[in-house]
Protein backbone atom coordinates (compact mmCIF):
# COMPACT_ATOMS: atom_id res chain seq x y z
CA UNK A 1 0.00 0.00 0.00
CA UNK A 2 2.34 2.72 -1.17
CA UNK A 3 1.46 6.23 0.06
CA UNK A 4 3.14 8.88 -2.03
CA UNK A 5 0.98 12.00 -2.37
CA UNK A 6 1.07 15.04 -0.10
CA UNK A 7 -2.54 14.25 0.87
CA UNK A 8 -1.60 10.71 1.85
CA UNK A 9 1.37 11.84 3.91
CA UNK A 10 -0.76 14.50 5.64
CA UNK A 11 -3.40 11.84 6.43
CA UNK A 12 -0.68 9.59 7.86
CA UNK A 13 0.49 12.44 10.12
CA UNK A 14 -3.10 13.15 11.22
CA UNK A 15 -3.61 9.51 12.24
CA UNK A 16 -0.65 9.86 14.63
CA UNK A 17 -2.35 12.86 16.29
CA UNK A 18 -5.84 11.38 16.84
CA UNK A 19 -6.83 10.44 20.41
CA UNK A 20 -5.84 6.76 20.38
CA UNK A 21 -2.63 4.83 20.71
CA UNK A 22 -0.98 5.05 17.27
CA UNK A 23 -1.93 2.03 15.16
CA UNK A 24 -4.73 0.96 17.53
CA UNK A 25 -7.38 1.23 14.82
CA UNK A 26 -5.35 -1.20 12.75
CA UNK A 27 -6.39 -1.53 9.13
CA UNK A 28 -9.03 1.20 9.54
CA UNK A 29 -6.08 3.60 9.84
CA UNK A 30 -4.28 2.34 6.76
CA UNK A 31 -7.58 2.34 4.84
CA UNK A 32 -8.24 6.00 5.68
CA UNK A 33 -4.71 6.94 4.68
CA UNK A 34 -4.95 4.90 1.47
CA UNK A 35 -8.23 6.59 0.53
CA UNK A 36 -6.85 10.06 1.37
CA UNK A 37 -3.82 9.32 -0.81
CA UNK A 38 -5.88 8.09 -3.77
CA UNK A 39 -8.52 10.83 -3.47
CA UNK A 40 -5.86 13.53 -3.11
CA UNK A 41 -7.51 14.93 0.05
CA UNK A 42 -5.90 14.78 3.53
CA UNK A 43 -9.35 14.49 5.14
CA UNK A 44 -11.79 13.08 2.57
CA UNK A 45 -15.56 13.45 2.97
CA UNK A 46 -17.92 10.45 3.05
CA UNK A 47 -17.52 8.34 -0.10
CA UNK A 48 -20.12 8.58 -2.86
CA UNK A 49 -20.18 4.96 -4.04
CA UNK A 50 -21.61 3.57 -7.25
CA UNK A 51 -22.10 -0.09 -8.17
CA UNK A 52 -22.29 -1.39 -11.74
CA UNK A 53 -23.30 -5.01 -12.31
CA UNK A 54 -22.43 -6.42 -15.75
CA UNK A 55 -24.42 -9.39 -17.02
CA UNK A 56 -23.76 -11.84 -19.85
CA UNK A 57 -24.06 -15.51 -20.74
CA UNK A 58 -21.47 -18.18 -21.44
CA UNK A 59 -21.38 -20.81 -24.18
CA UNK A 60 -19.49 -23.12 -21.83
CA UNK A 61 -22.70 -23.51 -19.76
CA UNK A 62 -23.53 -26.26 -22.33
CA UNK A 63 -20.85 -28.43 -20.66
CA UNK A 64 -22.92 -28.73 -17.46
CA UNK A 65 -20.49 -26.72 -15.33
CA UNK A 66 -23.10 -24.75 -13.33
CA UNK A 67 -25.81 -25.90 -10.92
CA UNK A 68 -28.25 -23.50 -12.61
CA UNK A 69 -29.53 -23.07 -16.20
CA UNK A 70 -28.43 -20.06 -18.32
CA UNK A 71 -31.98 -18.61 -18.29
CA UNK A 72 -31.17 -17.47 -14.73
CA UNK A 73 -28.78 -14.75 -15.97
CA UNK A 74 -31.57 -12.71 -17.61
CA UNK A 75 -34.04 -13.51 -14.84
CA UNK A 76 -31.57 -12.19 -12.26
CA UNK A 77 -31.04 -9.02 -14.30
CA UNK A 78 -34.78 -8.39 -13.90
CA UNK A 79 -34.46 -9.15 -10.18
CA UNK A 80 -31.58 -6.65 -9.82
CA UNK A 81 -33.67 -3.97 -11.48
CA UNK A 82 -36.80 -4.85 -9.50
CA UNK A 83 -34.92 -4.54 -6.20
CA UNK A 84 -35.11 -8.17 -5.05
CA UNK A 85 -31.52 -9.40 -5.42
CA UNK A 86 -28.87 -9.39 -2.68
CA UNK A 87 -27.03 -6.55 -4.39
CA UNK A 88 -30.25 -4.54 -4.76
CA UNK A 89 -30.80 -4.72 -1.00
CA UNK A 90 -27.16 -3.97 -0.11
CA UNK A 91 -26.90 -1.03 -2.53
CA UNK A 92 -30.05 0.53 -1.06
CA UNK A 93 -28.89 -0.20 2.51
CA UNK A 94 -25.52 1.49 2.00
CA UNK A 95 -26.65 4.37 -0.21
CA UNK A 96 -24.86 3.25 -3.37
CA UNK A 97 -26.23 4.00 -6.84
CA UNK A 98 -26.89 0.73 -8.72
CA UNK A 99 -26.58 0.37 -12.49
CA UNK A 100 -27.16 -2.93 -14.30
CA UNK A 101 -25.58 -3.41 -17.71
CA UNK A 102 -26.58 -6.15 -20.17
CA UNK A 103 -23.44 -6.79 -22.24
CA UNK A 104 -24.59 -10.13 -23.63
CA UNK A 105 -27.51 -11.87 -21.96
CA UNK A 106 -28.62 -14.73 -24.22
CA UNK A 107 -32.13 -15.36 -22.88
CA UNK A 108 -35.04 -12.98 -22.37
CA UNK A 109 -34.92 -10.43 -19.58
CA UNK A 110 -38.41 -10.38 -18.03
CA UNK A 111 -40.18 -7.02 -17.91
CA UNK A 112 -39.99 -5.10 -14.65
CA UNK A 113 -42.96 -2.82 -13.99
CA UNK A 114 -41.24 -0.70 -11.36
CA UNK A 115 -37.52 -0.19 -11.89
CA UNK A 116 -35.37 0.50 -8.84
CA UNK A 117 -32.06 0.49 -10.70
CA UNK A 118 -30.98 1.79 -14.06
CA UNK A 119 -30.78 -0.88 -16.79
CA UNK A 120 -28.40 -0.19 -19.65
CA UNK A 121 -28.85 -2.47 -22.65
CA UNK A 122 -25.64 -2.91 -24.67
CA UNK A 123 -25.51 -6.58 -25.71
CA UNK A 124 -22.38 -7.22 -27.78
CA UNK A 125 -23.67 -10.68 -28.71
CA UNK A 126 -25.99 -13.27 -27.15
CA UNK A 127 -23.41 -14.81 -24.80
CA UNK A 128 -19.96 -16.14 -25.59
CA UNK A 129 -19.01 -19.11 -27.73
CA UNK A 130 -18.02 -22.29 -25.90
CA UNK A 131 -14.46 -21.69 -24.63
CA UNK A 132 -13.84 -25.44 -24.55
CA UNK A 133 -13.79 -25.60 -28.35
CA UNK A 134 -13.07 -22.12 -29.68
CA UNK A 135 -12.29 -18.54 -28.64
CA UNK A 136 -15.15 -17.33 -26.43
CA UNK A 137 -14.95 -13.92 -28.12
CA UNK A 138 -13.43 -12.41 -31.20
CA UNK A 139 -10.93 -9.68 -30.29
CA UNK A 140 -13.30 -6.96 -31.52
CA UNK A 141 -16.17 -8.33 -29.40
CA UNK A 142 -13.91 -8.43 -26.37
CA UNK A 143 -12.81 -4.83 -27.06
CA UNK A 144 -16.43 -3.72 -27.47
CA UNK A 145 -17.38 -5.18 -24.06
CA UNK A 146 -14.26 -3.61 -22.49
CA UNK A 147 -15.23 -0.21 -23.95
CA UNK A 148 -18.78 -0.48 -22.61
CA UNK A 149 -17.46 -1.13 -19.09
CA UNK A 150 -14.95 1.69 -19.44
CA UNK A 151 -17.65 4.13 -20.56
CA UNK A 152 -19.80 3.23 -17.54
CA UNK A 153 -16.90 3.90 -15.14
CA UNK A 154 -16.01 7.16 -16.88
CA UNK A 155 -19.61 8.35 -16.63
CA UNK A 156 -19.90 7.40 -12.95
CA UNK A 157 -16.63 9.23 -12.22
CA UNK A 158 -17.87 12.30 -14.10
CA UNK A 159 -21.07 12.15 -12.05
CA UNK A 160 -18.96 12.63 -8.93
CA UNK A 161 -18.80 9.10 -7.54
CA UNK A 162 -15.67 8.65 -5.44
CA UNK A 163 -15.69 4.86 -5.10
CA UNK A 164 -16.58 2.36 -7.82
CA UNK A 165 -17.68 -1.23 -7.30
CA UNK A 166 -18.10 -3.68 -10.17
CA UNK A 167 -20.19 -6.83 -10.04
CA UNK A 168 -21.25 -9.57 -12.42
CA UNK A 169 -24.02 -12.00 -13.25
CA UNK A 170 -23.47 -14.78 -15.75
CA UNK A 171 -24.28 -18.43 -15.34
CA UNK A 172 -21.08 -20.52 -15.79
CA UNK A 173 -18.79 -17.54 -15.33
CA UNK A 174 -16.79 -19.16 -12.52
CA UNK A 175 -15.50 -21.57 -15.20
CA UNK A 176 -14.35 -18.69 -17.42
CA UNK A 177 -12.89 -16.82 -14.43
CA UNK A 178 -11.01 -19.94 -13.29
CA UNK A 179 -9.46 -20.35 -16.73
CA UNK A 180 -8.37 -16.69 -16.68
CA UNK A 181 -6.87 -16.93 -13.19
CA UNK A 182 -4.91 -20.04 -14.27
CA UNK A 183 -3.70 -18.22 -17.39
CA UNK A 184 -2.63 -15.09 -15.51
CA UNK A 185 -1.05 -16.77 -12.46
CA UNK A 186 0.29 -20.02 -13.87
CA UNK A 187 -1.72 -21.98 -11.29
CA UNK A 188 -3.20 -25.33 -12.31
CA UNK A 189 -7.00 -25.76 -12.51
CA UNK A 190 -7.05 -28.14 -9.52
CA UNK A 191 -5.89 -25.21 -7.33
CA UNK A 192 -8.32 -22.66 -8.74
CA UNK A 193 -11.58 -24.25 -9.91
CA UNK A 194 -14.31 -24.14 -7.26
CA UNK A 195 -17.95 -25.13 -6.85
CA UNK A 196 -19.47 -21.88 -8.16
CA UNK A 197 -23.23 -22.03 -7.58
CA UNK A 198 -22.69 -25.33 -5.74
CA UNK A 199 -22.02 -27.99 -8.36
CA UNK A 200 -21.91 -31.67 -7.42
CA UNK A 201 -18.86 -33.92 -7.68
CA UNK A 202 -19.55 -34.86 -11.31
CA UNK A 203 -19.91 -31.28 -12.52
CA UNK A 204 -16.87 -30.25 -10.48
CA UNK A 205 -14.77 -32.86 -12.27
CA UNK A 206 -16.14 -31.66 -15.62
CA UNK A 207 -15.29 -28.08 -14.73
CA UNK A 208 -11.66 -28.96 -14.04
CA UNK A 209 -11.44 -30.98 -17.26
CA UNK A 210 -13.01 -28.12 -19.28
CA UNK A 211 -10.56 -25.56 -17.87
CA UNK A 212 -7.59 -27.88 -18.47
CA UNK A 213 -8.68 -28.50 -22.07
CA UNK A 214 -9.35 -24.81 -22.77
CA UNK A 215 -5.92 -23.82 -21.44
CA UNK A 216 -4.28 -26.51 -23.57
CA UNK A 217 -6.26 -25.40 -26.64
CA UNK A 218 -5.08 -21.79 -26.29
CA UNK A 219 -1.50 -22.61 -25.27
CA UNK A 220 -1.10 -24.79 -28.36
CA UNK A 221 -1.16 -21.53 -30.33
CA UNK A 222 1.35 -19.74 -28.07
CA UNK A 223 0.75 -17.11 -25.38
CA UNK A 224 -2.00 -14.75 -26.65
CA UNK A 225 -1.16 -12.00 -24.10
CA UNK A 226 -3.51 -10.59 -21.44
CA UNK A 227 -6.20 -9.28 -23.81
CA UNK A 228 -5.90 -12.42 -25.94
CA UNK A 229 -6.60 -14.63 -22.91
CA UNK A 230 -9.60 -12.49 -22.02
CA UNK A 231 -11.08 -13.09 -25.49
CA UNK A 232 -10.12 -16.78 -25.60
CA UNK A 233 -11.52 -17.95 -22.24
CA UNK A 234 -13.18 -14.91 -20.66
CA UNK A 235 -16.62 -13.45 -21.05
CA UNK A 236 -18.44 -10.29 -22.03
CA UNK A 237 -19.22 -9.25 -18.44
CA UNK A 238 -15.62 -10.06 -17.41
CA UNK A 239 -14.20 -7.94 -20.25
CA UNK A 240 -16.63 -5.13 -19.36
CA UNK A 241 -15.46 -5.31 -15.74
CA UNK A 242 -11.82 -5.18 -16.83
CA UNK A 243 -12.61 -2.05 -18.85
CA UNK A 244 -14.56 -0.64 -15.90
CA UNK A 245 -11.59 -1.08 -13.53
CA UNK A 246 -9.13 0.33 -16.07
CA UNK A 247 -11.24 3.44 -16.67
CA UNK A 248 -11.83 3.94 -12.92
CA UNK A 249 -8.05 3.90 -12.43
CA UNK A 250 -7.54 6.28 -15.36
CA UNK A 251 -10.13 8.65 -13.83
CA UNK A 252 -8.40 8.43 -10.44
CA UNK A 253 -11.33 6.79 -8.66
CA UNK A 254 -10.63 3.99 -6.15
CA UNK A 255 -12.18 0.58 -6.76
CA UNK A 256 -13.46 -1.92 -4.20
CA UNK A 257 -13.26 -5.43 -5.64
CA UNK A 258 -15.85 -8.14 -5.07
CA UNK A 259 -15.33 -11.88 -5.46
CA UNK A 260 -13.61 -14.43 -7.65
CA UNK A 261 -14.95 -13.31 -11.02
CA UNK A 262 -14.38 -9.62 -10.31
CA UNK A 263 -10.84 -10.40 -9.26
CA UNK A 264 -10.21 -12.36 -12.47
CA UNK A 265 -11.35 -9.25 -14.37
CA UNK A 266 -9.08 -7.05 -12.25
CA UNK A 267 -6.17 -9.38 -13.09
CA UNK A 268 -6.97 -8.93 -16.79
CA UNK A 269 -6.96 -5.15 -16.31
CA UNK A 270 -3.72 -5.14 -14.33
CA UNK A 271 -1.90 -7.53 -16.66
CA UNK A 272 -2.86 -5.11 -19.47
CA UNK A 273 -1.81 -1.99 -17.52
CA UNK A 274 0.03 -2.50 -14.20
CA UNK A 275 -0.82 1.00 -12.90
CA UNK A 276 -4.43 -0.14 -12.43
CA UNK A 277 -3.25 -2.02 -9.32
CA UNK A 278 -2.67 1.21 -7.42
CA UNK A 279 -6.45 1.87 -7.39
CA UNK A 280 -7.67 -1.50 -6.12
CA UNK A 281 -8.91 -2.62 -2.70
CA UNK A 282 -10.25 -6.12 -1.96
CA UNK A 283 -13.62 -6.14 -0.19
CA UNK A 284 -13.59 -9.80 0.79
CA UNK A 285 -12.24 -13.23 0.08
CA UNK A 286 -14.90 -15.45 -1.42
CA UNK A 287 -15.34 -19.13 -0.60
CA UNK A 288 -14.59 -19.92 -4.27
CA UNK A 289 -11.39 -22.01 -4.24
CA UNK A 290 -9.09 -19.81 -6.32
CA UNK A 291 -10.00 -16.41 -4.95
CA UNK A 292 -7.21 -16.22 -2.36
CA UNK A 293 -4.63 -17.04 -5.01
CA UNK A 294 -6.08 -14.44 -7.41
CA UNK A 295 -6.01 -11.75 -4.72
CA UNK A 296 -2.43 -12.65 -3.84
CA UNK A 297 -1.46 -12.22 -7.49
CA UNK A 298 -2.82 -8.67 -7.25
CA UNK A 299 -0.98 -8.12 -3.95
CA UNK A 300 -4.29 -7.52 -2.17
CA UNK A 301 -5.35 -8.48 1.35
CA UNK A 302 -9.14 -8.83 1.67
CA UNK A 303 -11.04 -6.86 4.32
CA UNK A 304 -13.57 -9.59 5.12
CA UNK A 305 -13.87 -13.36 5.09
CA UNK A 306 -17.57 -14.13 5.51
CA UNK A 307 -17.56 -17.30 3.37
CA UNK A 308 -19.68 -15.52 0.76
CA UNK A 309 -19.82 -17.10 -2.71
CA UNK A 310 -22.41 -15.05 -4.51
CA UNK A 311 -20.84 -12.41 -6.72
CA UNK A 312 -23.10 -9.57 -7.98
CA UNK A 313 -20.75 -7.15 -6.10
CA UNK A 314 -22.32 -8.36 -2.83
CA UNK A 315 -19.04 -8.90 -0.93
CA UNK A 316 -17.76 -5.47 -1.89
CA UNK A 317 -21.07 -3.90 -0.85
CA UNK A 318 -20.86 -5.62 2.54
CA UNK A 319 -17.33 -4.21 3.02
CA UNK A 320 -18.31 -0.68 1.96
CA UNK A 321 -19.39 0.51 5.46
CA UNK A 322 -15.88 -0.32 6.72
CA UNK A 323 -14.46 2.25 4.32
CA UNK A 324 -17.05 4.82 5.43
CA UNK A 325 -16.23 4.03 9.09
CA UNK A 326 -12.49 4.41 8.48
CA UNK A 327 -13.08 7.85 6.92
CA UNK A 328 -15.59 8.93 9.60
CA UNK A 329 -13.01 8.15 12.31
CA UNK A 330 -10.29 9.91 10.36
CA UNK A 331 -12.49 13.02 9.94
CA UNK A 332 -14.34 13.11 13.21
CA UNK A 333 -11.93 12.10 15.95
CA UNK A 334 -10.28 14.84 18.02
CA UNK A 335 -6.52 15.25 18.05
CA UNK A 336 -4.62 15.03 21.35
CA UNK A 337 -4.19 18.85 21.25
CA UNK A 338 -7.90 19.51 20.56
CA UNK A 339 -9.13 17.18 23.31
CA UNK A 340 -6.48 18.10 25.87
CA UNK A 341 -5.37 14.49 26.13
CA UNK A 342 -1.71 13.84 26.86
CA UNK A 343 0.01 12.24 23.89
CA UNK A 344 2.29 9.23 24.48
CA UNK A 345 6.02 9.22 23.95
CA UNK A 346 6.92 9.48 20.28
CA UNK A 347 8.41 6.11 19.34
C1 LIG B 1 -30.02 -17.25 -8.46
C2 LIG B 1 -28.56 -16.86 -8.64
C3 LIG B 1 -28.14 -15.58 -8.31
C4 LIG B 1 -26.79 -15.26 -8.48
N1 LIG B 1 -26.13 -14.12 -8.26
C5 LIG B 1 -24.87 -14.29 -8.56
N2 LIG B 1 -24.65 -15.55 -8.98
C6 LIG B 1 -23.34 -16.08 -9.28
O1 LIG B 1 -23.36 -17.39 -9.80
C7 LIG B 1 -22.87 -17.48 -11.12
C8 LIG B 1 -21.55 -18.20 -11.17
O2 LIG B 1 -21.63 -19.52 -10.77
P1 LIG B 1 -21.58 -20.72 -11.81
O3 LIG B 1 -20.27 -20.60 -12.54
O4 LIG B 1 -21.67 -21.97 -10.97
O5 LIG B 1 -22.77 -20.58 -12.73
C9 LIG B 1 -22.70 -16.06 -11.58
O6 LIG B 1 -23.83 -15.67 -12.27
C10 LIG B 1 -22.47 -15.33 -10.29
O7 LIG B 1 -22.57 -14.00 -10.31
C11 LIG B 1 -25.86 -16.18 -8.94
C12 LIG B 1 -26.27 -17.48 -9.28
C13 LIG B 1 -27.62 -17.81 -9.13
C14 LIG B 1 -28.07 -19.19 -9.50
O1 LIG C 1 -16.71 -15.13 -5.61
C1 LIG C 1 -17.57 -14.96 -6.47
O2 LIG C 1 -17.62 -13.89 -7.11
C2 LIG C 1 -18.55 -16.05 -6.80
C3 LIG C 1 -18.43 -17.31 -6.27
C4 LIG C 1 -19.36 -18.28 -6.60
C5 LIG C 1 -20.38 -17.97 -7.46
N1 LIG C 1 -20.48 -16.76 -7.97
C6 LIG C 1 -19.59 -15.80 -7.66
TrEMBL record:
Catalytic residues in the record: 312
Matches recorded under InterPro entries: Nict_dMeBzImd_PRibTrfase, Nict_dMeBzImd_PRibTrfase_bact, Nict_dMeBzImd_PRibTrfase_N, Nict_dMeBzImd_PRibTrfase_sf
Pfam families: DBI_PRT
Coiled coil, from the record: none
Assigned EC number: 2.4.2.21
Record keywords: Cobalamin biosynthesis, Glycosyltransferase, Transferase
MF (Gene Ontology): nicotinate-nucleotide-dimethylbenzimidazole phosphoribosyltransferase activity
Catalytic activity field: 5,6-dimethylbenzimidazole + nicotinate beta-D-ribonucleotide = alpha-ribazole 5'-phosphate + nicotinate + H(+)
Recorded metabolic or biological pathway in which this protein acts: Nucleoside biosynthesis; alpha-ribazole biosynthesis; alpha-ribazole from 5,6-dimethylbenzimidazole: step 1/2
Gene3D superfamilies cross-referenced by the UniProt entry: 1.10.1610.10, 3.40.50.10210
Entry similarity comment: Belongs to the CobT family.
Function: Catalyzes the synthesis of alpha-ribazole-5'-phosphate from nicotinate mononucleotide (NAMN) and 5,6-dimethylbenzimidazole (DMB).
Protein name as annotated: Nicotinate-nucleotide--dimethylbenzimidazole phosphoribosyltransferase
